[in-house]
Every structure is written in structure tokens, then in C-alpha cells.
Amino acid sequence: MKPRKSLPQVVIIGRPNVGKSTLFNRLVGKKLALVDDQPGVTRDRRMGHAGLQGLEFEAVDTAGWEDEDDATLPGRMRVQTQVSLKGADAALFVVDSRAGLTPLDEEIGRWLRQQEVPVVLIANKAEGNAGQSGILEAYSLGLGEPIPVSAEHGEGVADLYTALAPLISDRAEWLEIEAEAEAAIAADEAAARALAAAEAGEELEELDPTSPLSLAIVGRPNAGKSTLVNRMLGEDRLLTGPEAGITRDSIAVDWEWDDPQSGETRIIKLIDTAGMRKRAKVVDKLEKLSVADGLRAVDYAEVVVLLLDATRGLEVQDLKIASQVVEEGRALMVAINKWDIAEDPSALFNGIRGALEEGLSQLRGVPLFAVSAMTGKGLDTMLAAAFKLREDWSRRVPTAALNRWFDDALAANPPPAPGGRRIKLRYITQVGTRPPRFVIFGTRLTDLPNSYERYLLNGIRKALGFGAVPVRLTLKSPKNPYDSNRGGGGKFSGGQGRD
């Protein structure tokens, strides 16, 4: 289990509220990191692909440096920042030119001078003349000439490029050559697979099984999400502790997992998210931003793991989170964490299974696993199942097989004839994957009972092997040009209706 190779790493360091996350967002060209006026918003390291006038690197946003004991939350955040510098190619030390130097800036400067990583000194918030005195003070840090920058307005980017490029450009060029070579090898292998499939008369799979799996971990606060990710990575990559709500940003980490069953190395993008409490309890602006960031992470994930706390069981909030995941069309699995300290584990597992079947009626048979973030129990089994779940979520049914099932389903249970008028279901087609989406064409579909829709939907899942993935079913009638009130619009099942 190992992190993936990356571009040259540039770590952004500084005390709280000097604009590190704003600079990070500017470099990556997206608002990835949460930004707010209050200090200490960032807690975990966040990485993003950055570009600066053609120079590509991996930018690393870090928590604000605070002079606190290592055992405290601010102290643990500082330790995470110090660890982030190991293996980095350069550091951007950000100071607030308007506020001037503080004793904490000087402490950080002394620590950086003792490191072997080259440092570029950034005097942020330098728009206008208000920051001139702070820029001059920054010379006293002994880290070379400060670069005046306004991360919020994008000023000083050219000067930043001039200072940073000599430090990382050599490695960036070497990695680019290496990446091109790997891409050429991958292209040759893909061409060979395509030729072999063509000779065998087979259709190529739409999903590349070697593509990275985007796996998001969600759940209530203190369920152990960050601890679980750290266990997978084999390092204290994310900040953890007894305090609830430590994680604020959704943090994505690329990782290579060695599958013990197949012996293959599989690529996973792990996404840790902030804990999601009941909406009524979320009143703080920053927590609202964190929850919204977590929901966006779900939107971009392929498979979502809902992590439960074995000491608390399944609660109403867990079912609400699960429903949101299903409504977004993501593949869902549930893991019960802290299994090593669970009381009466057999009864707990069966109880949660029954509660899921009852409370998540729109999706039966959601995969359920017992895991321990502390010991690593059950993680390999869960990850192997996540790849299988993605295959189902991404699968396209051959047209012939789909129509055979459809004909058999109609013959076994014909549509009803309300008022003596037949409802005709003519044919079915699959219009998309991820999640699987089907359209049934027919007439008088507005009269089709919901129970018959459920019959068709359950048949798609069982007979066509989709199991516990969300399936979207849409009913469409031909438009009647003489009737503006009937036909044409159809009705939807899944997402907007049934799922």
C-alpha cells in the first residue's frame, strides 16, 4: 500500500490567516480549499494540480502554524505541517505584508532555515501601497527577497514564477518525459487488447478496470473516517483525535492498493469528508461550508462508503446521508467501524442490516461490512467489493439480452388494463451508465401503477445483475400533437421519481 508518484511538490506554509488557502486556490485555478475570514479554517493537508505559466506542480495547502503543545489540536496541526515538508521540492512561506512580521513568522522562518528544502518568501496582500512596510520587514527573515503577491487579485504571479521555476523545473521536465513514456506503453497495451478483442469478435468494455477508483468516505462526526483513511495509507496523513469535527475540507489522496487476492496493484483516489450532522444542528457558517464540500465530493465519487460507529449503531442521520448518496446516483456501501470494540457484534450486524432494508427501501441489499480502522480488519474485503460495485454501476447490458429480459418480464406479468384499456410497453433501451439508466417506450404510461414500475425496476436489478446499485428508469410516450395534456412528457423513475 503506497501513495502514487506525483509532480514536484510545493508546500505552502505560514501562520493562520495570511492567505495560504487563497494562494492555493489561485495556483490550482479552482476554489478547492475552504476560505473564511476566521483563522484556522484549514486543518488537513490538501493537494491540487497547479499550473503557473506552463510550470506544472502539486501544490500542498497546510494548516496555519501555531505555537502550541504537540498534544493539542493546534499542535497536532503544526506537526502535520512539518511532516508535509518531507520529500517536498520547494516551500512557499507566506507572510501578511499588511500586518507586518510577528514573532510566529520569525519562529517559522528560523525553522525553515534549518530545513534542506528551498524556500520562496511570499509577501501576500501586497496590493496597493499598504503592504510596503511589511515587505521591507520580511527581508529580516533571512530567506531572500520577498515576492510581493496578492493571492486574492492574482497580482505578482509572474514574479512568483521567476522565483519558483529554477527550483522545480528540472524535476518537472524529467517527470514529464517519464509520464510520456508510461503513456506510450499504456497506449500500446490498449491497442493490443483492442486487436485481441476484435479478432475474438468481442465488444470492448466501456469501463477500463485499471482506471482509478474514486472512493469517498462519509458519515457522522467521530465515526473514524480520517483514521480509516490513515490506516489504508499506512501513515498519519490526516489529522485525527477525540475532538468531533476535526476534518473540514474534503481531502483527496491518490493511493495504490495491493489486492491480496489477485496480486494486482489497483489505483484508488481516497476522499475523506467532514462529518455530517443533522441539518438543524449545523448553524456555524464554517460547518455549513464543510458539509457542502462533503456533498460535492459525493457528486464526484464513484463509490461512497457510509461509515458507521459500532458503539452507536445506525441512526436516522445515517439513513439521511445514505438517501442523499443514492439520490445522487452513486454506488453505496456501508461499513461498521470500531468493530474491535463492538458489544454483541452478531446482533449488531443483523440489526443494522434489518434497519437498512427497512429505512433505505429504495435500494435493497446495500453491501454491509464490519471493519476496524485501528486494526485494519475487513479493509481488503471492503475495497475488493468496492471495485466490483463500480463494475456493476458502470455496466452496459447488450441490447439483445435486455430485450429478451423485457419480453419475458411482460409475458410473466403483463401490464394492467385500467378501465379496460391496455397499456402498451413497446421496447426498452439503456441510455447511460454510472448510474445505469433505462428508458421504456409505450402508450398510456401515465396510467401505469407505481407497483408495476417497481416490478420492472426490481427485475432489472435481479435478472440483469445490477444488484445494489441505483438504477434510473424513465417511461416515455410518443407525443400526441392533438393533445397538449397527455403523452410526450412521460414519467420518471429514479432521481426525479423512482430509483
From TrEMBL:
InterPro entries: G_ENGA, GTP-bd, GTPase_Der, KH_dom-like, KH_dom-like_a/b, P-loop_NTPase, Small_GTP-bd. Residues 8-172, 213-394 form the EngA-type G domain. CDD domains: EngA1 (cd01894), EngA2 (cd01895). The keyword Cell cycle does not apply. Keywords: GTP-binding, Nucleotide-binding, Repeat, Ribosome biogenesis. Belongs to the TRAFAC class TrmE-Era-EngA-EngB-Septin-like GTPase superfamily. EngA (Der) GTPase family. This is GTPase Der. The gene is der.
